[in-house]
Design a protein that fits this description.
The complex is a heterodimer of chains A (about 325) and B (about 270). With about 325 residues, chain A is an all-alpha fold. Helix content of chain A is about 75%, strand content about 0%. Chain A is globular and about 60 Å long. The chains are: A mainly alpha (about 325), B alpha/beta (about 270).
């Protein structure tokens, strides 16, 4: 009795871990799209780069593959953010001065390139088989599922909270005010001395770094990554979280991450229980259909998402009122 | 006696010019929108730029404001060549502008709109917000105080917390002026500050601009409202078909038959 109880609890905690990890990627997307209006349709690519960067640095050495430096987890997480941030800077520097459509095309292209590199550059990425034996924090607790899941959840929740706090601080800062001004009217912002290109690049890089962080967290949670983990459907899911939760609202983002992940998990369980084994692979497509349905209903009934954007003002203005 | 009677002086030729257009030409394909125009404005001077629609006034404005580099010629701002610098570099160099159709940040409050003009605000850079929060807070307090002063000066203080979308067309023009003044510019370019403005509000705009000019601000104003030009400007430049037709005191240029002809059009041949 208590065994199954703790089993469910462990399941809930590991569900929470995956939901929050997607939430971190979605916070990054919210900074890019929600606050700055940058249309990134290559989320999976930036997540993937972060995952591989951290995996390469933290795994033990393997014959025939580069990396395997065996560095500590925290180095991996920082490297993931730096690598994904650098990729964002490179993409942003060449596209952000152009019309916004070009950014969408470029980010989509980058995600495809990252996927192809992951599949084919076997000496670096392990190819289609990916990288396994990625160190997991709390591996000592591996034989106690509940304790392991709870510790993982605590760590990921702490990191998510830190990212959330950082972003809320930036949104409610004079820097965030300039982002909003640029989003509203670039020409007027330029007349006030604001360089739209510079601010867009900062937001794009910071958002990309958060996506990389999410990838690294995922790698260290599952302990294994392959190109399959970073299919285009990841981009779709993160976008669904943003739209359902509320574009421009960081709390909404986390709510959206929980809801979409819950739908994903519940339907996964239902398909496992309700379909004969030979049909399950096909039935899995229904999960994407259901998320699409959730997305459509949200757009119909609550076009601004469950929590719409709040009117943000500089926190320094509220302080002494 | 003579010294005491000086009010808004026409710039003496010797006065150092704040803003200068030197043989500025702007072509669009085969069309010459601005054709070899030179003018200069000194501190405390209000220079009117008038002429019929299509004369090239707004194109000249865009060149002065850095929206596009001129095809030929130079723009000197406090003696520095700035014609190749982008629009966002102008305000820091001392030149502010407003738009013919005002462009307030509609979702932001009036206060925030004006605070966006604050010069060298450390909080507008990413890192000080995370590493030097106290310095940012102090700069915000300072900027807020200054922004409220400017809003009061332009009679907008009661609306400071309202989003800019609630403003009337004339109030939007005032808000744009407020935003620009926040940056403490040496010269401002005003694109039709009187167009579509309620007469009572127009009085306010004229009075405030006169005060600012007495304080040393140089103003270049495009305007069709000749009352405003006559009341404010020491000199006016008339443009037609991309060129400077004539210049002088408002009374002189308005009396010039070529000016009337430019507005009404030449008799058909």
């Amino acid at each position: 009795m208590s065994g199954s109880w703790s089993g469910w609890l462990a399941y809930a905690a590991s569900f929470g871990v995956m939901a929050l990890i997607q939430g971190v990627a979605c916070l990054g997307l919210n900074l890019q799209w929600g606050q700055t209006g940058l249309f990134n349709v290559g989320v999976a690519g930036f997540v993937s780069v972060g995952a591989y960067a951290s995996a390469l640095l933290t795994t033990a050495a393997v014959e025939g593959r580069l990396g395997g430096c065996g560095l500590p987890l925290v180095v991996g997480l920082i490297a993931a953010m730096v690598t994904a941030g650098l990729l964002s800077a490179a993409v942003g520097a060449v596209t952000l001065r152009l019309r916004s459509d070009y950014l969408a095309i470029a980010t989509f292209g980058i995600a495809v390139v990252v996927d192809l590199v992951a599949r084919n550059l076997t000496w670096l990425t392990g190819g289609p088989l990916g990288i396994s034996f990625i160190p997991r924090p709390f591996a000592l607790l591996a034989d106690r599922p509940l304790a392991y899941a709870a510790a993982s959840f605590a760590l990921v929740a702490l990191i998510t909270f830190a990212a959330y706090t950082l972003l809320e601080r930036l949104v409610a800062s004079p820097w965030g005010r300039v982002l909003r001004a640029i989003r509203e009217d670039e020409r007027a912002a330029a007349s006030l001395g604001k360089s739209a290109a510079a601010y867009r690049l900062q937001a794009f890089v910071l958002g990309g770094a958060l996506m990389g962080l999410a990838g690294a967290l995922q790698a260290h949670t599952i302990g294994f990554i392959s190109p399959e983990n970073f299919a285009a459907s990841v981009t779709f899911q993160v976008w669904a979280m943003l739209v359902v939760g509320g574009t421009g609202n960081n709390r909404g983002v986390l709510l959206g991450a929980l809801l979409v992940s819950a739908l994903w998990s519940v339907t996964g369980l239902a398909i496992a229980a309700g379909f004969p084994p030979e049909q399950q692979a096909r039935a899995a497509a229904l999960r994407i259909v259901l998320i699409g349905l959730l997305l459509s209903l949200t757009i119909l009934w609550r076009p601004r998402g469950l929590m719409g954007e709040r009117t943000a003002v500089s926190r320094h203005l509220d302080a002494d009122d | 006696m003579k010294v005491a009677t000086v009010s808004v002086p026409a710039a003496p030729p010797a006065a150092a010019s704040i803003l200068e257009a030197v043989h500025v030409t702007q072509r669009f394909g085969g069309l010459v929108a601005v054709d070899d125009v030179s003018l200069s404005i000194a501190a405390g001077e209000v220079l009117g730029l008038i002429g019929p629609n299509g004369a090239g006034k707004s194109t000249l404005f865009d060149v002065l404001a850095g929206e596009r580099p001129p095809s030929a010629g130079r723009v000197l701002l406090r003696g520095q060549s700035v014609e190749r610098q982008p629009a966002e570099a102008r305000l820091g160099a001392g030149l502010g502008r407003t738009f013919q159709i005002p462009r307030p940040f509609a979702a932001l409050s009036l206060l925030e709109n004006v605070m966006l003009g604050a010069p060298r605000h450390p909080g507008e850079r990413l890192w000080p917000n995370l590493l030097a929060s106290g310095r940012v807070a102090a700069a915000e307090r300072l900027a807020r105080g200054r922004a409220m002063e400017i809003l009061s000066f332009l009679d907008l203080a009661p609306l400071a917390r309202e989003p800019a979308r609630v403003l009337s067309g004339g109030q939007r023009k005032l808000l744009e002026l407020a935003r620009v003044l926040m940056a403490e510019p040496a010269v401002v370019l005003l694109d039709e500050p009187a167009a579509g403005v309620h007469p009572a509000l127009l009085e306010t705009i004229i009075a405030r601009l006169a005060t600012l000019a007495r304080g040393g601000l140089a103003v270049l104003v495009i305007e069709h409202h000749l009352g405003l030009i006559a009341e404010l400007c020491g000199r006016a430049v008339v443009m037609a078909e991309g060129r400077v037709l004539c210049s002088g005191t408002p009374a002189e240029v308005l009396a010039d038959p070529r000016v009337a002809e430019a507005y009404v059009g030449r008799p058909a041949a």
